[in-house]
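Hi everyone,

Forwarding the result from last night's run.
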Amino acid sequence: MKSIEDFEDGVALCALVESLFDQKIPKYKWKKRPKNKAQKLVNLQIALDFIKSKGAKLVGIGNASIHDGNETLILGLLWTLILTFSVTGENSNGDGDDEEAKREAAAAASASARKKALLMWAKKLAKEFNVDVKNLNKSWKDGRAFCAIISAFRPDLIDMEEVEKMTPRERLELAFRVGAMLGCPSILKPEDLLDVPVRSSLPL
């Protein structure tokens, strides 16, 4: 996904949420090759309904907004997805009975799948600005990745050339301030990122 147009038919969004939640969208079969606007809108609604069913709060965004390419609302949706996930990737200690071990293994596999999906998406956007996103901890500490994601959709709000001149704290403050302005409140503070231990993942 490299531009707003990638979301227009709902295919990219459906595939993204299935990857993030490591689960196929139930009940309704979304079309991988929608032929008209109606089918595209159905795809988008299926994805939004699935996201809501997982507890994510979506405010003011509908299938028509995404289909019409509303950059602010689409950015808000993606920002919400990022902040919804808790990608720890921690391993089980192996204690407990077999069933418990299986549940823990499944949870770990699911977290790993979400982590990979988020990394893939972030890498594609950040790469356009020569920002290398390698993981969900150290790669985000200097604020460049956050700014790159916003600038990919709203270059009028964040100038990456100016971002390069800023300190890590200034970049993080800018990204979170612009995100809040776009209706994407942050659950993080610059201090949370600047003090991230090497082995910890961001509470996205």
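Residues 18 and 25 are 6 Å apart (CA to CA).

Cheers,
N.
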